[in-house]
Amino acid sequence: MEVSADQVEQAVVEFYRDPVAKSGLNTWLMQAQHSRHSWTFAWPLLDQRKPEEVQFFAGNTVYMKVSRYWHEVPKEEYEPLKIKILNLLVQYSSSKIILNRLIKSLGAYVIHTLQSEWTTAIQDIISMFDPGTVAGLEPSVALNLLFNILTVIPEELESMHEAMSVVSKDKQIITGIIRNSHQAVLNLITQVMQASQVSNVIKEVVLKTLNAWLKLSLPLSETRELLVALIPYSNYALLCEPVMDAIRTAVTDVGTYTIPNTVMNFVTQMLGLTPVLEEAQHANDENTASLVYSLFTSVVECHSRLLLQHALQPEHRATVVQVVALLLQCAATPGQYPTDETTSNIPFAVWFTIQDDILTFEGEQQAELLTIFQPVYLKLVDTFILKSLLPPDSALSSEEKEMFRCYRQDICDTYMYAYYVLRGDMLSHLEVHLKDAVVKMQRDPSDWRYLEAVLHAYSSVAETVAETDNFYVPRFIQSIPQIPFSDNIQLISVALTTLGAYADWLNYHQDHMHHVIPLMVEGLVNASLVGAASQALRDLTLECPLTISPFSQPILTSCQRALEQSRLDSAETERIMTIISRVLSVGKDQPTIMTYLNATLTPYISRLSHLKDLMRTGLSREQHSELVSLLKLLSCLARHLNLNNYSLEDEDDDEGATRRHSQVLSGEPQPLLLVLQQLMPLLSDLAVKAPTDTEIIESGYVIRRLSPREAVASGVSSVASAGAGNFTSTLEDESFTYVASLFWALVALVSVAQRGSVTCLLYGQEKGVASPQEGVACITSTQEESVPTTRAGNVTSPQESIASPQECITSTQDETISSPQELCVILRVPLSTTTLRNLTKKILFLVALAMAKGVTLCKLLKNSIGTLLEDCVPILPAILEIIPQIYEASLNPSLLELVKQLVVLFGRDGNQETNMGVLLRMVTTTTLNRVSADLWNHTDAVHGCLAMLSVTFKKTPHLLTYHHNHLAPLFHLGNSPRHSLSSFSDVLSALCKMYGDDLARTFKGVQADETFLSPRVTTQQKEDFAKKVLR
Questions:
Q1: I need a labelling partner for 31 at 20 to 30 A (CA). Which of 297, 405, 533, 756 fits?
Q2: The most confident of 23-37, 571-585, 826-840, by mean pLDDT
Q3: Which SS3 state, helix, strand or coil, does residue 779 take?
Q4: CA angle at 616 for the pair 610 and 618, rounded to the nearest 5°
Q5: What is the secondary structure of 876-898 as a DSSP string?
Q6: Where's the Importin N-terminal domain (predicted)?
């Protein structure tokens, strides 16, 4: 179709005026933009008399065409095109948003022509925009334009390579050509930076140009002198960050690994930043201090091993120690995190890197390094005990509390790294702190925070402490009953958590069990402590199944009291049920177990039956949640009540026959089987009444579709509102409708971290922005593969487009913004490292919680089969009735794991083999019938089915012979999403092995067919391919 400039202008203007027609206009504009006609209509629209949104559309069209449709430009048009772009650059030199599009257009033009048509592009551009000779531009404007162009050229090369507009081979050649011009650019940068008459605003642009060129891996030997000369500029607030960025890019480049001496000399010169740091601290300039600390953190993370090697050399040791001392100083920044300071968290990753690299050295070298760094790590332990002191409850907002929780978790991780360096010396050091803390609390019971911080440190190293430690850990365990807790709930909770962390050690030292059991048992019957006590005791029963047996009676009694007396949440009830199941599984006869279970479970089963009856008229939200919680409770029982403690996962093919039976030695059936025989009619009724209720049936949630902007906004809003104390409640209340938003918010944060830029879908899907106004709100992502999908496959690439700065600003006005961090994400402007780190942690924490939530009916059945193994035969008919009822109604992928488990377990059982074949056929045919028309909207079911078949075909290939008619449609699943192809290849491989003769005959027919894939594939190539497959 013919597209004129007038038509495009009218469509763009109408796009903003008519919300109803917006979607259709957007599609039409994108089609016009990609058509050949855009080469014609774009230029007339680049008229400053036109509406701004029209000019913006035209500028972005030019950029898209030059960068992605270069093949449409005939060679005779190269020079006229260049002239048009250069003239427009001068014309729009004062219009920043449009100018950015034109600069990128020139950058794309340079990339396409640098190899042959315009080999002197860099030198020519420097000459063209020389402030002393360029006509029609102020010197400052010319300088700004020149350095923006020089910045875009290397950046555009990378962007075009990512967009596959430039192939890898050409990219390498073009990179080499650009690098050959680096000396001229560096000389120009040096000249401008030394010019006193040039403003810091222009120098900021110059430094960004330097950073862009340094990313081309320029030799540090050639850039070091310039970089050292830039250090004094870090005293200027506007220039400090770009100076640090340039130095970081240069010193952490991959090419520096081959020039260790040059790097070490440069690091020594970087210590010239120490006065800048001291001045910033004196002036309470946290931003500058953070930038300096971040730079040294990056250096140590990148060159840790190099620094350690030089630490072994006396002439360089002082430099290495001084660098590490700066980071230790950073960790010890005075004040409360995050209210008084947000700097001390910067070097967390360094402490792992250093200890990890130290341990790669051997013998005397490692011993010498440990001698050098052990004092550093001891000081670090002292620092973190002080920094991890809990502030008063009212001192932090909910958001700040969550930031501090993440901060303490980082400290917890760092304690583990410190232990690997210090070993027993760390425990000895903590013992000194513990004694001091106890003395302080004895003097003043209100001074308990120091003791809490010490217990937190002990808890952090529990997993790393060797089970053979017979000196420090016993003394710590024995000291717990002597601590004057003074009914301090928070302190007792920490003590319980710490004791639970040492469960593995206690399993090998059961003589110390009597020091810890009383505190845990007492905590179970205290409503304020039941959460921590149940967590600790659950860990203990999981790790110490045999050594806990002598204490079973007081534990069971306390559990019963807790269930009867306390108002527990679902998580606490589940933990107590786990404790009961583990304790009953050791040293108890069946009558005793059943007596206790009858007393414990009867109220819950009665309540479950009542809720099932109420489903006829509909459950309230509270009743529905209660029903799900009851199923989860029974799932815990099924998972842990096992008198033999064998599981399906433990089975070995060669020895499986001796481990499939789960009956107790007395010959009586497992107590769990007796419970399930009574429970199965009730579960069958639930499956009939709610086959499509995902919360009741499976272990996950359906996530509603959100637009990208809505997802980011709501995701960040929910993250910000979920403080340390109410994560679970937030998730319960929202039923995880924000899981998609959390992912989107994470995608947004990562994008900001990596690029500091945004996407505008309508305008060519490009990532660069020219100003805060332009960057305000194109908050969509166009990289489809990076977008997480849900079970329903309904969170896909964004569909909304934002076409101009004005619309972007308007589009964010309806968002509820309650903090600067939220505003940063909504507006997609650069975030500080600290804010980014904490927001990302919050999102990951919520997503992890979401993914772990909802162990319901499927999980209950799966756990039951895993515990009972072949002795689940009495309840197998009921299970085989439940599965088709649910799967045919809902196509629920959670059922597929259950089917896989059953087929592997009973697929070779002569009595159940037919049933398994029927079950496998039902699942396969149901899946194929439901998904074949739309694979992409059933990615979860496709993936689950293929994963199930890949396992069952390997374990029970003979079941294929029962039914052949469902095999042919399987091949249509080869068009399934990429993440399913691995399972599809496994299924295909299994089929090929099963039907090898048929496969060979098929290949012979294909080879003989001269029309198949000819002329691109020769007969010989077909034969070679067939041989490789049939091999």
A1: 756
A2: 571-585
A3: strand
A4: 90
A5: HHHHHHHHHHHHHHH--THHHHH
A6: 27-91
Q: In three state form, how does the secondary structure of 909-977 look?
A: CCCCHHHHHHHHHHHHHHHHHHHCCCHHHCHHHHHHHHHHHHHHHHHCHHHHHHCCCCCHHHHHHHHCC
Q: How far apart are CA 62 and CA 656, in angstroms?
A: 68
Comparing CA positions, the residue from 230, 247, 209, 243 lying closest to residue 122 is 209
Backbone angles phi, psi at 779, to 5 degrees: -95, 25
Are 319 and 264 in contact by the 8 Å Cβ rule? The answer is yes
Dihedral sign computed on CA atoms, order 206, 211, 216, 219: positive
Q: Please, are residues 764 and 64 in contact by the beta-carbon 8 Å criterion?
A: yes
859 by Cβ neighbours in 10 Å (0-12 / 13-18 / 19+) ranks as buried
Distance, CA of 335 to CA of 143 (rounded, Å): 43
Quick one: which of 152, 155, 195, 190 has its CA closest to 171?
155
Among candidate residues 813, 810, 834, the one with its CA nearest the CA of residue 823: 813
> Which are the contacts of 83, defined by CB distance < 8 A and separation ≥ 6?
none
Cα 611-617-622 angle, rounded to 5 deg: 50
- pLDDT, mean of residues 339-353: 96
Cα angle 3-7-12, degrees, rounded to a multiple of 5: 120
Q: Percentage of residues in the chain with pLDDT exceeding 90?
A: 58
Q: Are 596 and 577 in contact (CB under 8 A)?
A: no
Q: Could you tell me the pLDDT band of residue 740, with boundaries at 50, 70 and 90? A: very low
Task: Give buried/exposed letters for 886-897 (b at 16+ CB in 10 A, else e).
Answer: bbbbbbbbbbbb
Rg (CA), the chain: 34
Q: Which of 29-43, 399-413, 808-822 has the lowest mean pLDDT?
A: 808-822
Distance separating alpha carbons of residues 741 and 769, to the nearest angstrom: 24
Q: How far apart are CA 840 and CA 348, in angstroms?
A: 16
Lowest mean pLDDT among 99-108, 220-229, 408-417, 803-812: 803-812
The owner of tokens 């217990």 is 455
- CA 231, CA 16: separation in Å to the nearest integer? 48
What 771-774 contacts at long range (C-beta under 8 Å, 24+ apart), as own/partner pairs, is 771/96, 771/97, 771/100, 772/827, 772/829, 773/97, 773/805, 773/809, 774/96, 774/97, 774/100, 774/805, 774/808
Q: Which of 344, 393, 348, 336 is nearest to 724 (CA)?
A: 393
Q: Which amino acid is at 872?
A: C
pLDDT tens by residue, 537-552: 999 999 998 889 999 9
User: Is the per-residue pLDDT at 528 higher than 80?
Assistant: yes
Mean pLDDT of 888-909: 89
pTM, 2 dp? 0.76
Average pLDDT, the chain: 81
Q: What is the pLDDT of residue 203?
A: 96
Residue 999 contacts by C-beta under 8 Å, 6 or more apart in sequence? Answer: 992, 1029, 1030
Residues 6+ apart with CB under 8 A from 359: 366, 420
Residues shown for the chain? 1031
**C-beta pairs of 540-544 under 8 Å, 24+ apart in sequence:** 540/499, 540/500, 540/503, 540/506, 540/516, 541/578, 541/579, 541/582, 541/583, 542/503, 542/578, 542/582, 543/503, 543/504, 543/506, 543/507, 544/503, 544/506, 544/507, 544/510, 544/513
Give the amino acid at 923.
V
The predicted structure's pLDDT at residue 723: 35
**5-14, 271-280, 609-618, 729-738: least confidently modelled range:** 729-738
Cβ neighbours of residue 755 closer than 8 Å, sequence gap 6 or more: 767
Q: What is the DSSP string of 418-475?
A: HHHHHTHHHHHHHHHHHHHHHHHHHH-TT--HHHHHHHHHHHHTTTTS-TT--SHHHH
Q: Could you say which DSSP state residue 766 is in?
A: B
pLDDT beyond 50 at 846? no
